[in-house]
Structure formats: structure tokens, C-alpha cells
Amino acid sequence: MLDFEEIASVDDFKESDRLEVFIDDTPVLLLHVGEQYFAIEDVCTHDGQPLTDGCIEDGAIICPRHGARFDLQSGKALCMPATKPVRTFEVEVRDQKILARPQS
Ligand code: FES
């Protein structure tokens, strides 16, 4: 199992609920929703649109281009036109640091 990697700080979320980071060369969108942090690959599986500016609704992010929805926890595609999941990452907070690793 891969180790957690520090990708951000809790302080990075003072002015926004989202942050673009990289994990092993993969563009990742880190989101702060309620009390939880989620990390998902920042590429829609339908046609490659970054999900960066997608609205968050009911635990899902909506692709700004054609409206596919992805579950923030599992990455599952919840509606057309996307059919494949986006990759997600396990997130932990330790001492104000945000760490992530690929879901096993
Ligand atoms: S590129 Fe995301 S729904 Fe089409």
C-alpha cells in the first residue's frame, strides 16, 4: 500500500473550498465539503474537462462541460454522459497537514 503524501495544509482552505494539487504527476482536485476533505482526479472521464470549477451537490461534483456527476467518495459516475469513474484518493488530516494516497 502506498504511503500518504502531504499535499496541502488546512490553512490553504481559509478562502476557498478547493485547491488544485498534483499527486505523482496526476492533477488532483482537493475539496473541503462540510467537515470532510475529498481528493479526486481533476479530469472528467467523459471528455477530459477539468472538474476544478464543478458545482458540489449532495456529495457529488458536476462536470462544468456536459453535466456528468461523480461521487466524491468513490469517484463513481452517477449519470451520463460519463460512464467511467474518476480516480479518488484517501485523505487524512494530521497536525493541520492534509495528506493523501491513492484508494486501495
Ligand atoms: S467532459 Fe465532463 S461531462 Fe463531458
Automatic annotation (TrEMBL):
Coiled-coil intervals: none
PROSITE patterns cross-referenced by the UniProt entry: RIESKE
Domain Rieske intervals: 5-100
Lineage: superkingdom: Bacteria
GO molecular function: 2 iron, 2 sulfur cluster binding; dioxygenase activity; metal ion binding
Keywords from the named record: 2Fe-2S, Dioxygenase, Iron, Iron-sulfur, Metal-binding, Oxidoreductase
InterPro entries attached to this UniProt entry: Rieske_2Fe-2S, Rieske_2Fe-2S_sf
Name of this chain's protein: 3-phenylpropionate/cinnamic acid dioxygenase ferredoxin subunit
Gene that encodes the chain: hcaC_2
